[in-house]
Amino acid sequence: xxxxxNGNHNNNNATEKSEDKEKAQVERSNWGNGLEFLMSCIxxxxxxxxxxxxxxxxxxxxxxAFLIPYIIVLFLIGKPMYYxxxxxxxxxxxxxxxxxxxxxxxxxxGYGQAFGTICIISYYSSLLALTLYYLFVSFQSELPWSYxxxxxxxxxxxxPAEYTENLLTGLASNVSTLASNLxxxxxxxxxxxxxxxxxDKLQSSSExxxxxxxxxxxxxxxxxxxxxxxxxxxxxxxxxxxxFLVIMRGVKSSGKAAYFLALFPYVVLIVLLIRxxxxxGAREGIIFFLEPQWGExxxxxxxxxxxxxxxxxxxxxxxxxxxFASYNRFDHGIYRDAMIVTTLDTLxxxxxxxxxFAILGNLAHNLNIENIRDVVRSGTGLAFISYPDAIxxxxxxxxxxxxxxxxxxxxxGIGSIVALQSTIVTIICDQFKGLRYWKVALGTSICGFLxxxxxxxxxxxxxxxxxxxxxxxxxxxxxxxxxxxGIVWIYGLQNFCDDIEFxxxxxxxxxxxxxxxxxxxxxxxxIFIYSMVTIEPIQYSELYFPxxxxxxxxxxxxxxxxxxPLWGLWYVSRHREGSFCSSIMASLKPNEKxxxxxxxxxxxxxxxxxxxxxxxAAQKESSKLGFFWRKIxxxxxxxx
Length: 640
Hints:
The chain is mostly helical. The chain has helices spanning 3-26, 34-45, 48-60, 67-92, 107-137, 161-168, 177-186, 191-197, 205-214, 230-247, 251-276, 282-290, 300-314, 320-325, 334-366, 379-392, 398-431, 437-452, 460-504, 510-533, 547-574, 580-587, 599-620, 624-636; strands at residues 155-156, 203-204, 539-540, 543-544. Helix 9 crosses helix 16 (379-392). The protein is globular and about 85 Å long.
């Protein structure tokens, strides 16, 4: 008789231990405090895209006039998407795949976004390797890209003109005409003349250094892309070691690192801004950047590029914002954070643009070039040719500015890729609860390093351009449309707004309702269709890709976009409810896993939703006109 209670007691202990173990698996880590979350969002959203991608994109699309569509896109697409992703992550405490319990048939959106994120990670790490390479060589007594080598033809020194003039002062009076021309070009007065008199185009030493020494560029990849460069491989390995160390303990480690990753770049950027605006020619560069070309406002391509820049800069549509928000407390005030980050991102882009074009204005002044267009290069070239060229012309301690600049770029890049990598790790850990976080982080970091080797080959820049265009931009774009449609149109705007009201204890305003239900999805659909209709074969360095490259690009896009229907069909086949059509309809309704992760909070949420449903059912019994006006007031966010 006495054994029975003991047996029950042992059973109870076993049950409690089992429940505790299950609870431990379900419970999710949280940020140490709300500021860590804010700093992490700043570190991912304020990245390389603000410093080297935004300035050139603005310049290419009308200068100051680009700011108008960019700000409009920010308010109608950027902010709504950013806030929506923050809400989804915090409400469910889940990553980009698990949130689709709200509409299980759309689970492929999460997997497709993970595919796009992997594509971005693969080439983003190679940019960090280049940045780290330039950081290391900046410690030399003379910046290695600042002067020409003897075997570099048609080369113009990037170092200050006065330096070259001093070297040439002692030359004999009977030097050759070619030497006189080189002296004239080095002093900044004969560049255009020499260019006119020669068939070959003049190149700065910084350009030749990047193309021939650093990446050993291949202009024909028909015979392959070559082998990885050992120096860049070591830089790539170092970058991934840093990434792993930051993310190995999840938000416990990345949250602490976020303070430095978010704040340090601003210190360097402000220092560079103060120095840049005091350079000769800086005023002309800033005016060139801000002066609007109003005719570009009517160009649909400008609006498409504004959306792409907005997505790239804010990191929406690829998962990091959902992932970061999933580690918040359920009652955290994310509205404030969303407004701070999206506003700060835009201001940083403007700050970066002014700084960069002040430097480029000085570069044009030193080379005696009137059109700043002639000293600007896009993409990777802007970061690793134009900026080093300008830094080498600083009269006082250019090595110091070079170290600061490239360390800033490295920190900006780390902040962004840490978020992207953590997104993939979170997806895997959410799917397989038994895996240790640090082991998954280590495994994915090794895979990221191996994928990055492709980009540190002589043909790596070709692959980077291809993957960014097809695997990053368009995959993220089309899946973001499905993401918004699944939440707002399928799950329902009113349901979503009720969830926000329960979590944030505030009604959703008309601005958010109008954007989520109409402006944001419609604008994205129209711009995506336009970009698909007007798409042209991509180029690298004004050279077209071989046909096999275009086929590979479209295959990459197809794999990413196909995740949506394929996973949807998989879910329907695994959860049959009657006919095929009935199963599809069932897959578009929330399943039992949808809702807050905490069981007690979920019960309160279910009661709240039931009360809302009862109130609306009661309204149906009122007059038709009264019900109509009630629907209008509900949509506008008025109290019931």
